[in-house]
């Protein structure tokens, strides 16, 4: 066993993974009983916390994986078997009557293998099909018991395991990671009182106000049904046809056309619960609440030209980014903040808090930090975990309740319903990634793929034969907030829902000039792809109501005149409480200015001045960045001082858009080689256009000149992101360079 363990080392950073010396490993030939999920008591409490929950996480250790250990399989050192556990002698040849004879029907081994393969795929999600997930934990800063009895918020330091899935919305499962799109931000909390799913997005509002319109929205957004185009893109006729006829979508469009829709990383975007939810405390007292996740790394985005090019350079850009960061121990972290307000406060707002196209400005109700979420473990198996995870807006726990938001009402139905066909039946809650760590006992039985073996003959309640078990929890159980309801049945909307523009204008007014330009550019791009002029015109008419400058600039880009404004559904909306909200700008959360996990390209070729590159490399590593030596070909690069550097990427396999910044090397011979390559120019031009930091050492300054890159901005100011230095001053240059990369981008240079 020890020899095998040495030959097949398992990942010791994953504490509970089966390894050769693991206590979890079944002894060969012995039936392995799955560990009981509850070995210490009838309910999971802080006192008997299992390996999956506990008071505080040990740094580097991820407790969220524990409950999944009983189903993790590791074949290292094992014999190949059929699904019935029968050892397979030959996995190369089917059973035939003679070496050149026909295959035999009796070959159950071949048939089992092929049949299973034939059914490997399941339907993809109707929306949010493409996504990436990770395990982690949520840790409360303090008790929120005065507001809610929700388990994760009951004590300072309380830890609740989570599984998170980030996603795009429109694209299919195999589509790209960087289209202009909303990102899903779905968090499953495995709490002591059952699973709570906070199924949010990276944008705090939504396109529509009523779930009745969701199928229409999605049909308009998805590839057009006659020819199946375009993939993962909203820039087409049907989407803009629909939204231009639905002015309620305007506020969301402003966000979706902003840089929020092209995040640099899942690790660098906010998340929002979108709807107004309710917090309910043990006494039954209720407050309204909005959920906000804010990334520790700050909010950062791509620019559109870069996002479009990344689609070709790396389809898995965001998936890889998340995976690599977690593997490297650079665990992404978000702070959870709550906007808590009373129903009386909500009544007085100029907008309706039940309208998912509206935010509650932070100036009106501040965001209170209540805890942090850390993602510290990658899934072991993409399908078993990330694909099979089933988030449901209906999954709430005691202490969290719904409001009458009509969009939320439809979601409460839709998610469970969709899992039944996607995951093949009503027992998807038993799939390990979906199974709560709280025990499940009820009288639901049977159905496709039932895993639990229910004992006894009682599957009804009330019963006497089973001693009345399982019994109702009474006051300890989930009780809906007893909101009084006495109204006529109607199909309609409250009046404030008809104010479609006030908050769209607030959003635009709250952006920096560069952000406003990016919004203009996005509208221009998207509407330029619309082939029916009447749709473009209708959309412009709507934008006039947001901001005349916005409409004028978009119209100019489309070669169209600004039309008359679209008639308002509500002529005299209530005066807004705020007309500018700095928190709505991405610049409000710059992060700590550090450059951890940023990828930096160091170009090199034979003859490169080695010592200055090594200084840069060391300084970047020390700052937590990922310096990557990129050369015309892989392998050894001979430096002019006789040393050898190792190129781990080529200019062909790693285009410039995959890097956050660029270092050009000193060394006459290397610079001459690089100057002769078209890719060098592309590296410099792309990095420059995308407002990234470039450092040219010594002789490579000629490459900047050749690429037409100036060190001065059009304004005459020095460009803080175009740096030059001699090789001798590499140590100082590294400091300046790192500070400049920490700015993320030099948008003063923005030129597209
Ligand atoms: Fe939804 C998936 C977020 C409105 C119906 N939605 C889905 C996912 C996220 C959201 C993050 C992916 C979950 C995962 O990673 O598996 N959806 C939202 C937000 C909304 C929203 C923030 C508005 C506030 N959704 C919405 C409505 C409906 C749906 C109004 C239907 C009435 N959403 C679904 C769905 C999906 C889904 C069809 C597809 C796959 C799935 O549920 O599991 O049920």
TrEMBL record:
<keyword id="KW-0408">Iron</keyword>
<protein>
    <recommendedName>
        <fullName>Catalase</fullName>
        <ecNumber>1.11.1.6</ecNumber>
    </recommendedName>
</protein>
<dbReference type="GO" id="GO:0020037">
    <property type="term" value="F:heme binding"/>
</dbReference>
<feature type="domain" description="Catalase core">
    <location>
        <begin position="81"/>
        <end position="469"/>
    </location>
</feature>
<feature type="binding site">
    <location>
        <position position="165"/>
    </location>
    <ligand>
        <name>heme</name>
    </ligand>
</feature>
<feature type="binding site">
    <location>
        <position position="422"/>
    </location>
    <ligand>
        <name>heme</name>
    </ligand>
</feature>
<comment type="similarity">
    <text>Belongs to the catalase family. HPII subfamily.</text>
</comment>
<dbReference type="InterPro" id="IPR043156">
    <property type="entry name" value="Catalase_clade2_helical"/>
</dbReference>
<keyword id="KW-0349">Heme</keyword>
<dbReference type="InterPro" id="IPR041399">
    <property type="entry name" value="Catalase_large_C"/>
</dbReference>
<feature type="binding site">
    <location>
        <position position="125"/>
    </location>
    <ligand>
        <name>heme</name>
    </ligand>
</feature>
<feature type="binding site" description="axial binding residue">
    <location>
        <position position="415"/>
    </location>
    <ligand>
        <name>heme</name>
    </ligand>
</feature>
<keyword id="KW-0376">Hydrogen peroxide</keyword>
<feature type="active site">
    <location>
        <position position="128"/>
    </location>
</feature>
<dbReference type="InterPro" id="IPR024712">
    <property type="entry name" value="Catalase_clade2"/>
</dbReference>
<keyword id="KW-0560">Oxidoreductase</keyword>
<dbReference type="Pfam" id="PF00199">
    <property type="entry name" value="Catalase"/>
</dbReference>
<dbReference type="Pfam" id="PF06628">
    <property type="entry name" value="Catalase-rel"/>
</dbReference>
<keyword id="KW-0479">Metal-binding</keyword>
<feature type="active site">
    <location>
        <position position="201"/>
    </location>
</feature>
<dbReference type="GO" id="GO:0042744">
    <property type="term" value="P:hydrogen peroxide catabolic process"/>
</dbReference>
<dbReference type="InterPro" id="IPR011614">
    <property type="entry name" value="Catalase_core"/>
</dbReference>
<dbReference type="GO" id="GO:0046872">
    <property type="term" value="F:metal ion binding"/>
</dbReference>
<dbReference type="InterPro" id="IPR024708">
    <property type="entry name" value="Catalase_AS"/>
</dbReference>
<feature type="binding site">
    <location>
        <position position="411"/>
    </location>
    <ligand>
        <name>heme</name>
    </ligand>
</feature>
<dbReference type="InterPro" id="IPR029062">
    <property type="entry name" value="Class_I_gatase-like"/>
</dbReference>
<dbReference type="InterPro" id="IPR010582">
    <property type="entry name" value="Catalase_immune_responsive"/>
</dbReference>
<dbReference type="GO" id="GO:0006979">
    <property type="term" value="P:response to oxidative stress"/>
</dbReference>
<dbReference type="GO" id="GO:0004096">
    <property type="term" value="F:catalase activity"/>
</dbReference>
<feature type="binding site">
    <location>
        <position position="214"/>
    </location>
    <ligand>
        <name>heme</name>
    </ligand>
</feature>
<dbReference type="InterPro" id="IPR018028">
    <property type="entry name" value="Catalase"/>
</dbReference>
<dbReference type="InterPro" id="IPR020835">
    <property type="entry name" value="Catalase_sf"/>
</dbReference>
<dbReference type="GO" id="GO:0005829">
    <property type="term" value="C:cytosol"/>
</dbReference>
<dbReference type="Pfam" id="PF18011">
    <property type="entry name" value="Catalase_C"/>
</dbReference>
<comment type="function">
    <text>Decomposes hydrogen peroxide into water and oxygen; serves to protect cells from the toxic effects of hydrogen peroxide.</text>
</comment>
<keyword id="KW-0575">Peroxidase</keyword>
């Amino acid at each position: 066993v020890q020899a095998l363990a040495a030959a097949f080392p398992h990942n010791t950073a994953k504490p509970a993974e089966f390894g050769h010396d693991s206590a979890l490993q079944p002894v060969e030939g012995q039936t392995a009983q799955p560990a009981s999920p509850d070995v210490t008591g009838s309910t999971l409490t802080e006192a008997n916390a299992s390996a999956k929950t506990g008071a505080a996480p040990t740094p580097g250790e991820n407790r969220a994986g524990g409950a999944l250990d009983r189903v993790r399989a590791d074949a290292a050192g094992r014999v190949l078997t059929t699904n019935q556990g029968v050892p397979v002698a030959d996995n190369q040849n089917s059973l035939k009557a003679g070496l050149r004879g026909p295959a035999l029907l009796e070959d159950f081994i071949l048939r089992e293998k092929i049949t299973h393969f034939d059914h490997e795929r399941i339907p993809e999600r109707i929306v949010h099909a493409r996504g990436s997930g990770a395990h982690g934990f949520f840790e409360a800063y303090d008790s929120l018991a005065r507001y809610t009895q929700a388990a994760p918020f009951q004590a300072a330091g309380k830890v609740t395991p989570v599984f998170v899935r980030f996603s795009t919305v429109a694209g299919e499962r195999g589509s790209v990671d960087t289209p202009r799109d909303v990102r899903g931000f779905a968090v499953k909390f495995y709490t002591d009182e059952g699973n709570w799913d906070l199924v949010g997005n990276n944008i705090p509002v939504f396109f529509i106000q009523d779930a009745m319109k969701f199928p229409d929205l999605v049909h308009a957004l998805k590839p057009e049904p006659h020819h199946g185009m375009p993939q993962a893109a909203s820039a087409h006729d049907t989407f803009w046809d629909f939204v231009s006829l639905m002015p309620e979508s305007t506020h969301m469009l402003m966000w979706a056309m902003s840089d929020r829709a092209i995040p640099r990383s899942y690790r660098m975007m906010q998340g929002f619960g979108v709807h107004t939810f309710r917090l309910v405390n043990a006494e039954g007292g209720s407050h309204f609440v909005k959920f906000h996740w804010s990334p520790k790394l700050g909010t950062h985005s791509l620019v559109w030209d870069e996002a479009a090019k990344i689609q070709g350079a790396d389809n898995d850009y965001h998936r890889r980014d998340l995976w690599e960061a977690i593997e490297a121990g650079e665990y992404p972290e978000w702070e959870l903040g709550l906007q808590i307000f009373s129903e009386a406060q909500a009544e007085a707002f100029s907008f309706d808090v039940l309208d998912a196209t509206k935010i509650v400005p932070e100036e009106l109700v501040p965001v209170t930090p209540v805890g942090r979420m850390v993602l510290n473990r990658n899934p072991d198996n993409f399908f078993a975990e990330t694909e099979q995870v089933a988030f449901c807006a209906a999954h709430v726990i005691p202490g969290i309740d719904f409001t009458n938001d009509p969009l939320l009402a439809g979601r409460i139905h839709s998610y469970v319903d969709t899992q039944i066909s996607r995951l093949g039946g009503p027992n998807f809650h038993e799939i390990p990634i979906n199974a709560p760590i709280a025990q499940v006992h009820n009288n639901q039985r049977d159905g496709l793929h039932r895993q639990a073996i229910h004992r006894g003959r009682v599957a009804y309640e009330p019963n006497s034969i089973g001693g009345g078990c399982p019994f109702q929890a009474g006051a300890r159980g989930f009780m809906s907030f007893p909101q009084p309801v006495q109204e006529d049945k109607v199909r309609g909307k409250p009046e404030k829902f008809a104010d479609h523009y006030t908050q769209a204008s607030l959003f635009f007014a709250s952006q920096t000039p560069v952000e406003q330009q990016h919004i203009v550019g996005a509208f221009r791009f998207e509407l330029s792809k619309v082939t029916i002029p009447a749709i473009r015109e209708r959309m412009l008419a709507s934008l006039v109501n947001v901001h005349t400058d916005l409409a004028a600039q978009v119209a100019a880009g489309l070669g169209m005149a600004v039309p008359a404004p679209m008639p308002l559904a509500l002529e005299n909306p209530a005066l807004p409480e705020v007309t500018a909200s700095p928190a709505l700008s991405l610049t409000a959360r710059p992060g700590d200015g550090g450059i951890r996990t940023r990828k930096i390209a160091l170009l090199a070729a034979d003859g490169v001045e080695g010592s200055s590159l090594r200084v840069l490399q060391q300084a970047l590593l020390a700052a937590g960045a990922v310096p990557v030596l990129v050369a015309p070909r892989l392998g050894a690069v001979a430096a002019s001082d006789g040393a050898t550097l190792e190129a781990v990427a080529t200019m062909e396999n790693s285009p410039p858009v995959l890097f956050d910044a660029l270092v050009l090397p000193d060394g006459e011979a290397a610079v001459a080689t690089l100057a002769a390559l078209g890719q060098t120019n592309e590296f410099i031009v792309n990095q420059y256009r995308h407002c990234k930091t470039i450092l040219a050492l010594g002789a490579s300054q000629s490459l900047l000149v050749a690429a037409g890159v100036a060190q001065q901005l059009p304004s005459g100011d020095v460009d803080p992101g175009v740096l030059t230095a001699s090789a001798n001053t590499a140590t100082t240059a590294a400091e300046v360079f790192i500070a400049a990369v920490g700015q993320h981008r030099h948008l003063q240079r923005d030129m597209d």
